[in-house]
Amino acid sequence: MLREPAPAKINLYLHIVGRRADGLHLLESLVAFAEAGDVLYAEPADRLSLETVGPFAAALAGEADNLVLRAARALAPGQGARLVLEKNLPVAAGLGGGSADAAAALRLLSRLWDIETDLGPLAAGLGADVPVCLAGATCAVAGIGERLTSLPDWPVPHLLLANPGVALPTPGVFGARRGAFRHSRPWPQTLAELAGCANDLTEAAISLAPEVGAVLDALAALEGASFARMSGSGATCFAAFDDAADRDRARDTLRSRYPDWWIA
After folding, report:
1. Is 145 helix (H, G, I), strand (E, B) or coil?
2. Residue 129 annotated in active site
3. Catalytic: which of 9, 87, 101, 200?
4. What pTM does this model have?
């Protein structure tokens, strides 16, 4: 079978700078991709099918038509393939898992079916996070997610991810957000500038899931952590480290203290 990784999307910061007439929020963010992620497999078949396996497969059991299948049909309606999604990322976790899976489907099936086309418009039609997941590399993101600036040399810190096992659907978090919008600003150029940014959905997420606050406190207290922040609409948070060895030691510490959390 052909194989395609679908790495977790991490919002290193997320500022909300406005709202369109259709209700969609305008964002500014710096997005990086983690080592952790889902994996999509595909092989030729007469009809299109999807099997979900892995530690978080049960969370998708009720989805008869998820983004992977929608991506396949958008790329080539009526074409067949046997797809297997290894679901390693928690669902509704602020990691763009579904979007990453859809982007992986576009990349993988374009190879399997030998289709040469611009995948960008298809990605944009599948969801706001799918274009950056299709890029799969560090980007500055603006608008509703459609304006990407590739930043291949941006010094992404070493990240430690933690999720307390709480699902936070994105619409609910945006709906709970209160307060004014930020002024637009250039994306941060250094780690020091990044540390001075924020995730503007954090307060809303904590109001819906107080566990998010506990995760942020635990991450910020880890030795060697530069700062801790929530990714996307939560509930996954991360600590940033300058040194990979410090990050790895902190991961071991966190796993011993919170064995029920998802930690990567």
Report:
1. coil
2. yes
3. 9
4. 0.95
